[in-house]
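On clarity, I found the account of how folds are encoded harder to follow than it need be. Since the whole study asks how a given chain folds, the encoding of that fold should be made plain. For illustration, here is how one protein appears when written out as sequence plus structure tokens:

:::
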Amino acid sequence: MAAGLAVPISGPYTATFGGLPFGVQDDAGYEMSVTIQGQEMNETDQFGMTLVEGIYRGQNWRMRNRGLEWKTGLLSALQMFGQTGAAGTLTPLLANIGDRWTKFSLPLVMTAILGNPPTTPQSITATNAGIAPNSQSVFNGTSKLRELPLEFCLIPYVAVVNSLSVQVPFTST
């Protein structure tokens, strides 16, 4: 069989939060995004508002998904600050106000279903993940499929990568 002219990368992932499965997702799968933070130098007497330089100020990584099954991983993520009922139920607890976000963060692990290639990276592990601050999740009580969209923040932590201790939002293989 002749090889194609391009080598695309594709393939779905499975994911867990704190070891609990997310289940089937909508066709968009898991969406990773990054906001590169910086301070623009763009108000000068000589160049007006032309961007002439910038100062790097970090990066914020997010993962978004839309669950099609109300698996315990999705519900535990939605209720990461506490719940009053049994696992697998939606019974959030309003407690722990003022506590650190990372106290409730858990590992988020995404694993490719297909081999390498066509899927790369094969896995993504964010040890310090949790529902993103100020994010909103909604679900509709209708006769249609009940979807559960979530947004996670991947808070940096120290990991050993290539024998070096570095600060990362996640690692990948």
Q: What stands out?
A: Residues 72-78 form the longest helix (7 residues). The chain has a mean pLDDT of 94.
